[in-house]
Design a protein that fits this description.
It contains 17 helices and no strands.
């Protein structure tokens, strides 16, 4: 491990002088440091009093988030390749599936980073400020929320909207109201619905598809909410399509690139909580709101009600991108509230709104994206309300 680290440091040390103050690429210095910090966490120490034993600066903050995104990214690559080869009648062994998935997913990530970085450079040059490392997270989060068949030009349009309209118009990283990755995803969802919804967008079928006999359905489990199943047999219908609770938790079904596996999202959430980046209050609040609303709808279930009224709320927890959104999107420290009680309420309402959107409005079967963006608007109000309540509890000075 030490030899690998030494080699990597030599690779970065060779061009370092060009990015240092006075070098030819001085303006690109923050970008060079951001990329370097992905491989090496900052290890600088204060030399004069007051001494700081440890701090979580923006560079290390973003590095931890990137590490936490590795589980859903790796699983998403394999899952994409697996279902592509399955639907095409090809071999689905691990290595070939992972290789196929990498060929599909990697161009999406490259386009997201390349176009997003272009806009970051433009605004950095205009405003004469360093490039923020925050884009390293946004540039990876956004592709993981997309279907594998998304056209690359739409990836470019979406990330452009997310960076420019979702973040830079507010002043850049730390000043945006909405999560930039979700803003980009919402724009693509509403601007190009044909490429973001429907059975055909979730599996990249290859040339041998004509020889494949209905190997896999392209419909996601949440898309089955529109089927007219008996109100109390929705779980049996899901199981008959291969969507058991275990399958939903693992995430081995067609869906977004990185948002299908609840287990991978849980691993990432634990990493973020342990690093002190994500708030467990928001995550637990999301889960509590989802389960409470799901149980309440179970009580209201009737034969004339929509099918998902009667489904076990745990299915909502495992299905779709709820776990991914709760772990990586809802906990965004910029767009989420910072006070303790507000975090609980914020998370609870995200979970509740996710279930309501899924159950009541079949046009938007996912729900978590809209729920988080909606609550982003109310995060400042929740903080303001809690602060005002605390002030009222103070003993007036006489």
């Amino acid at each position: 491990m030490g030899r690998i680290e030494t080699t990597l440091r030599k690779i970065f040390d060779i061009p370092r002088k060009h990015f240092a103050p006075g070098g030819r690429l001085e303006k690109m210095g923050p970008l060079f440091e951001a990329i370097e910090d992905v491989f090496f966490f900052p290890a600088e120490a204060t030399r004069h009093r007051p001494l700081v034993r440890d701090s979580l600066d923006l560079k290390r903050f973003m590095s931890f988030v990137l590490v936490a995104l590795i589980p859903p990214l790796l699983f998403g690559i394999y899952n994409t390749g697996y279902h592509t080869r399955l639907a095409s009648g090809l071999s689905t062994d691990f290595l070939t599936a992972a290789g196929t998935g990498l060929m599909i997913v990697l161009p999406v990530i490259i386009v997201s980073y390349a176009v997003g970085l272009f806009w970051e450079l433009v605004f950095a040059a205009v405003r004469k400020h360093p490039i923020s490392e925050g884009f390293l997270v946004t540039g990876l989060l956004f592709p993981l929320t997309l279907p594998p068949t998304i056209p690359l030009w739409q990836v470019a349009v979406g990330i452009s909207f997310g960076v420019v309209i979702g973040k830079e118009v507010f002043g850049g990283t730390g000043r945006n109201i909405f999560n930039p990755a979700l803003t980009a995803r919402a724009f693509i969802f509403f601007a190009y619905p044909a490429q973001m919804s429907g059975d055909g967008v979730w599996v990249a079928v290859r040339q041998n598809a004509a020889n494949a006999a209905d190997a896999v359905t392209g419909a996601t489990p949440l898309a089955l909410t529109t089927l007219q199943a008996p109100f109390n047999h929705i779980q049996e219908m899901l199981a008959s399509k291969g969507y058991t609770l275990a399958t939903l938790a693992v995430g081995n079904y067609p869906g977004t690139i990185g948002g299908t596996s609840a287990i991978c999202a849980a691993v990432g959430a634990l990493i973020l909580i342990a690093a002190g980046i994500a708030s467990y209050r928001i995550i637990l609040g999301c889960i509590a709101g989802l389960l409470a609303t799901g149980f309440l709808l179970n009580l209201l279930a009737a034969p004339q009600a929509m099918p998902w009224f009667s489904v076990n709320p745990v299915y909502h927890l495992a299905a779709g991108g709820f776990a991914f959104g709760a772990a990586y999107m809802a906990t965004d420290p910029v767009t989420a509230p910072g006070t303790e009680r507000a975090k609980w309420i914020y998370g609870f309402l995200i979970g509740a709104l996710t279930v309501l959107v899924r159950v009541v409005n079949p046009a938007f079967p996912e729900g978590v994206m809209l729920a988080i963006l909606f609550m982003n608007m109310f995060a400042p109000l929740l903080e303001y309300s809690e602060i005002r309540l605390r002030i009222k509890k103070r003993i007036p000075h006489v």
